[in-house]
Design goal:
With 516 residues, the chain is mostly beta strands. It is built from 3 helices and 32 strands.
Length: 516
């Protein structure tokens, strides 16, 4: 019986001993950033834990080492109470000559324990992945056309291979100033590409009008998220592409001058011969059924010759419709020309910008009308009028003055203000103490979006005058009387004149009788 009891006790002691003297443990860790390349810096974020409810950890310290990685460790961790937890950041740098692969980082945790005393140490291994410098590359590249001409549309068929860590939400885009762009879209969603995986993509491309003959590698921008950071970017080059400058191709664009709703303007058509041969008898015709303008001169004009590499302009005088909104309109041009290869007739769409000049006028009034410096409350009204030729949206107003103290919120939102329309903003205000009589300025700052959805800021200054209380009182006493008072006064005056008249003539008649 005694032997059995002793055996059970030994088993229980063996079971509970790790809990009695467990020491420091790494509860969890995280490596940031998740994708590391040679020469990059990173951090191991450790969550250290003391799982014992009775043991007290003292003077804990940390040492770290790994092949190809230089650690910058502040060895001292400090004390860790029973069931305590702490977070420790271990910075490091991947050496420039480090080889790609998985590196095992050795972390040595030393400490003193309240149980048994003495020095203790635990060693942990944490894997760190060092990726190759080029994580993403383009393979299996093909083009739908053997030769690309300026203005051509074509497809790129390629495979993107991920040699690094997994990426998420990847999107392909292009520089707005690039010679190539996407055809019919501004971005291509590629999605997730796992580590070591490949993804096939089809990219519709539009060649710019300015490309020249040669071999190209087109750079596109890949934006993606990794496990830690969002919005990473990498440049992927797709090529080679063979481009040839077609001698029958040309670049055409349009500008406008004084083209505003309800007025006369100029459509200036700009033609550049991007080929190697001259273009002769070049004819340009405006559409006769356009809704937003009317031709005021000849709707068709001719250029005798546009030499190779030469740029020429053609101007058309037009009248813009009164009810036309200010925006960019598509202008369909009919073109014909002759080259050494014969005659060709085509149509081209160009964008023309119909301008809308935004103009806001500001007027001020107050109640009472006369503003004095004797601490009265005034209702100040600011009338905003749209005197331009296009509507404004999201109009907001802010008012301030060195002489007036605005009692309510100085910011007011009006919203949309149509043509020839106005809106009024009212403020409660008093004249600031110590303000002397004289002329002062009310500053009105207006923010709005114009017809092209561009944010605009406009400032106006309105002058007003502040009088002294005494002058205002004198002015009110000398003010003209009301019409009723004037009428009563007139009746009394007529009565006085009437009685004076009767008295004068009666006395004259009696004197004449006495003389007879």
């Amino acid at each position: 019986m005694e032997m059995k009891t002793i055996a059970i006790m030994l088993v229980l002691m063996a079971f509970f001993t790790p809990l009695v003297h467990a020491g420091v443990e790494i509860k969890s860790y995280e490596i940031s950033p998740s994708t590391l390349k040679p020469g990059m810096s990173g951090t191991i974020i450790l969550t250290l834990n003391n799982p014992s409810s009775t043991e007290f950890i003292k003077d804990a310290y940390l040492d770290a080492s790994a092949s190809g990685i230089q650690f910058n460790v502040d060895n001292k961790i400090g004390d860790l109470g029973a069931l305590g937890t702490t977070i420790l950041a271990v910075p490091f740098k991947v050496q420039s000559n480090a080889k790609p692969g998985i590196v095992s980082a050795s972390l040595s945790l030393g400490y003193s324990s309240s149980i048994g005393g003495g020095s203790n140490a635990k060693i942990f291994s944490i894997p760190i992945t060092i990726s190759a410098t080029n994580l993403l590359k383009v393979t299996d590249f093909q083009v739908s056309k053997d030769t690309i001409y300026p203005g051509d549309s074509f497809n790129i068929y390629a495979v993107i291979e991920n040699a690094g860590g997994a990426i998420r939400n990847s999107v392909l885009s292009y520089e707005t100033s690039a010679a190539y762009s996407f055809d019919g879209t501004t971005k291509i969603d590629i999605g997730d590409i796992e580590s070591g995986a490949k993804k096939s993509v089809t990219i519709p491309v539009l060649a710019g009008s300015a490309i020249t003959s040669g071999y190209y590698s087109i750079p596109f921008i890949l934006t993606y998220d990794d496990a830690v950071t969002a919005g990473n970017t990498d440049t992927l080059k797709f090529g080679p592409i063979t481009a040839v400058q077609d001698y029958e191709k040309f670049a055409i664009s349009a500008e406008t001058q004084d083209a505003t709703p309800g007025g006369k303007g100029i459509f200036r058509i700009i033609i550049k011969n991007t080929g190697t041969n001259d273009l002769r008898n070049f004819r340009i015709s405006l559409p006769q059924d356009a809704a937003f303008f009317t031709s005021l001169d000849f709707p068709e004009k001719t250029l005798d010759i546009i030499k190779a590499g030469e740029t020429k302009n053609v101007e058309f005088e037009v009248g813009i419709g009164t009810n036309i909104a200010a925006q960019v309109y598509s202008l369909k041009l009919a073109l014909s020309y002759q080259t050494k290869g014969g005659s060709e007739s085509i149509t081209k769409n160009v964008g023309v910008k119909i301008g809308g000049a935004s103009e806001l006028s500001v007027y001020l009034s107050s109640n009472p009308v006369v503003i004095t410096n004797d601490n009265k409350l005034y209702s100040v009204s600011i009338q905003i009028s749209n005197t331009g030729n296009s509507a404004v949206r999201a109009l907001s107003v802010r008012a301030n003055s060195e002489a007036l103290q605005i009692l309510n919120n100085p910011d007011a939102f009006i919203g949309t203000l149509s043509l020839d329309d106005y809106s009024t903003v009212q403020y409660d205000a008093i004249v600031k103490k110590g303000t002397a009589p004289g002329k002062y300025k009310l500053n009105v700052e207006m923010t709005y979006k114009d017809s092209y959805n561009q944010q605009k800021n406009e400032k106006k200054v309105v002058e007003f005058e502040i009088y002294s209380g005494e002058i205002a009182m004198i002015a009110s006493k000398q003010a003209p009387q009301s019409p009723i008072v004037m009428i009563i006064g007139g009746i009394i005056l007529i009565g006085i004149l009437y009685f004076a008249y009767k008295k004068f003539f009666k006395s004259s008649a009696s004197q004449k009788l006495k003389l007879k």
